[in-house]
Amino acid sequence: MWKAFAIFYVLSLAFGLVIGATLLLGLWDEMAYGIKILGSVSLVMALATAIGLVAYAFNLHVPPFGLWRPYSWFLGILLGALSVISVVRFAAQYEGGDDLVTLLWLSLSLLVNYFSWLGVWRYGRRMKATA
Fold first, then answer.
1. Which of 7, 14, 55, 98 counts the most CB atoms within 10 A of its CB?
2. Tens digits of per-residue pLDDT, 98-122?
3. From the CB of residue 52, how many other CB atoms can be counted at a distance below 10 Å?
4. Cis omega before residue 64 (within 30°)?
5. Nearest to 64 by CA among 51, 75, 73
């Protein structure tokens, strides 16, 4: 399961990078400085998460070994906050109607957040045990 999820995550990241580069490079000059910084930090974190997931799924040892445990805590805080924001936004938009598609996207988002954190956290535990 972890190998399939890691491949899914990496392919989604690559697809997102291609689409993001295509759409956002044309608007780069018009974007606020804070948005540029936030986007750059998100990109670095997504790449590190993809590396951690692939390393955990395929039993690789990726240095620096001491990075992964604190990174998993930071990633857990960030993804937890993003998950809470997603749930609050869904609850604010809920009108009692048929929001099945929105609920499915919310569920998928929460599952991807949880399993990406769990893979990096397990990898951090494995690296701490081998160090």
1. 55
2. 678 888 888 999 999 999 999 999 9
3. 28
4. yes
5. 51
